[in-house]
Amino acid sequence: MGLEVNDCGELIVRAPEKLSRAAIEEIIRKHQRWIENKLSEVEKRRQMFPPRKFIQGEKFLWLGKEYPLVISGESRPALKFTGQEFILSSRWQGRAREIFKKLYRRKALTYLSRRTAELAGLNGFRFTGFRLSSAATRWGSCSARGTISLTWRLVLAPPEIIDYVIIHELAHTRERNHSRAFWHLIEEQLPDYRQRRRWLKKYGFRLNL
After folding, report:
1. CA-to-CA separations, 90 to 2, 67, 177, 183, in angstroms, rounded
2. 176 sits in which H/E element
3. 13-32 pLDDT per residue, tens
4. Could you give the C-alpha distances from 42 to 14, 47, 97, in angstroms and in order?
5. 25 - beta bridge partners?
6. Domain ranges (residues) in the chain
7. Residues 27, 30, 34, 36: is their CA dihedral positive or negative?
8. Is the peptide bond before 77 cis (omega within 30 degrees of 0)?
9. Distance (Å, rounded) from C-alpha 189 to C-alpha 163?
10. What is the dihedral of CA 32, 14, 146, 154, to 10 degrees?
11. Is the torsion defined by CA of 141, 155, 65, 4 positive or negative?
12. Are 113 and 130 in contact (CB under 8 A)?
């Protein structure tokens, strides 16, 4: 059985279907101290990185780097990224979160679909389709038919972290579970995958609006 506290402060329990509810609750009780510590860590992160205000000078991520937000008096476009800064129309500041997500999603579809195809070709993987998701707690998935799904939030991460997630999901086209063979396959493609995985566990909470 596995316990996880995600970046939203939710406790996720993974257990065999045959395990009784009473047994699950007992395991949770025994790990109460660990759960409380993890919840405390999540709260500390929230205090260090308060909710977005979408104001002049606030920094936003793109491919692992931070770029400042400039508030413009122009009504159009609502938001654009120049490669040096994000420019948001003051007229649309009240809907900034929604508009930022639209921009990120549009750019993510282009970047992630292209990069998935590139890495598949370079490493000999075959997948049947690509889908962009809005998942808040899952970076990606691979369907039984070989469709790769990736959350748009990944474009906030450094390129090497994005590549790790893509390779991870492409590896599932050959190995369906997280067996020893699966991780060996990952290591063949990315010898430093453990380091990239640790980065995602430590800083993944920042890849959001």
Report:
1. 46, 18, 48, 48
2. none
3. 888 888 898 999 999 999 99
4. 20, 9, 22
5. none
6. 2-48, 59-96, 101-206
7. positive
8. yes
9. 10
10. -10
11. negative
12. yes
In the chain, the amino acid numbered 58 is E
Those residues whose C-beta lies under 8 Å from the C-beta of residue 102, and which sit 6 or more positions away, are 79
What are 133-142's pLDDT values in tens digits?
998 878 999 9
Q: Which of 94, 90, 89, 81 is nearest to 155 (CA)?
A: 81
Report the alpha-carbon distance of residue 75 to residue 98 in Å, rounded.
16
The topology (CATH level 3) of 101-206 is Zincin-like (3.30.2010)
Residue 139 has which token pair?
Answer: 């970076």
- Residues 95-103 have a mean pLDDT of 96
Q: Which region among 4-8, 58-62, 114-118 has the lowest average model confidence (pLDDT)?
A: 4-8
Length of the chain: 209
Token pair of 96 as six digits: 């900034």
Give alpha helix (H) positions in the chain.
21-30, 32-48, 96-123, 159-171, 180-189, 193-203
Q: How confident is the model at residue 74 (pLDDT cuts 50, 70, 90)?
A: confident
